[in-house]
């Protein structure tokens, strides 16, 4: 695989990873919707006087409200995750720059010490 494909993430591995992430998201969202439906049924089971049509309406509205709230929460979590990714990437870059600088300084100091020792050994 070329360096360009690795950098852009356009190879078959990247496509597979994207596909798996989409599948995982789809399954997680369907589980969330099903959980909302279960909670709606549990709620309407506590209201035995509802007619079948009323029960269906309450379940539909409850499920819609619950999934809308889940969407808002997931959007908030996603935004925060992106923000944290940016912060941690910046921190990692600074740390890497410091480590490289420290390694260069240490190598320079070691080379200088070797040069001094070589001069003293003459």
* Straight-line N-to-C gap: 52 Å
- The rounded Rg comes to 29 Å
Q: Could you give a short account of the major beta sheet?
A: none
Number of distinct beta strands: 0
Q: What sequence of helices (H) and strands (E) makes up the elements?
A: HHH
Unreliably modeled segments: none
- The geometry reads as rod-shaped
Backbone structural class: mainly alpha
Total individual domains: 1
| Mean pLDDT, all residues | 91
What portion of the residues fall into strands of 2 or more residues? under 5%
Could you characterize what this model shows?
- The protein contains three helices and no strands.
- The longest helix has 70 residues, at 52-121.
- With 122 residues, it is mainly alpha-helical.
- The chain has one domain (3-121).
SSE map:
Elements: H1 3-8, H2 12-45, H3 52-121
Helix pairs in contact: 2-3
Give me some keywords for this one.
122 residues; mainly alpha; 0% strand; rod-shaped
Summarize the structure.
The chain is an all-alpha fold and 122 residues long. It has helices at residues 3-8, 12-45, 52-121.
């Amino acid at each position: 695989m070329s360096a360009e494909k690795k950098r852009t993430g356009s190879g078959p591995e990247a496509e597979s990873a994207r596909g798996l992430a989409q599948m995982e998201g789809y399954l997680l969202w369907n589980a969330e919707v099903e959980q909302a439906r279960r909670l709606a049924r549990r709620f309407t089971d506590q209201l035995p006087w509802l007619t079948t049509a009323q029960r269906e309406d309450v379940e539909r509205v409850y499920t819609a409200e619950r999934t809308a709230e889940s969407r808002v929460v997931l959007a908030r979590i996603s935004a925060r995750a992106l923000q944290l990714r940016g912060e941690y990437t910046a921190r990692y870059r600074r740390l890497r720059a410091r480590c490289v600088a420290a390694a260069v300084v240490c190598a320079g100091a070691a080379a200088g010490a070797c040069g001094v020792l070589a001069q003293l050994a003459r």
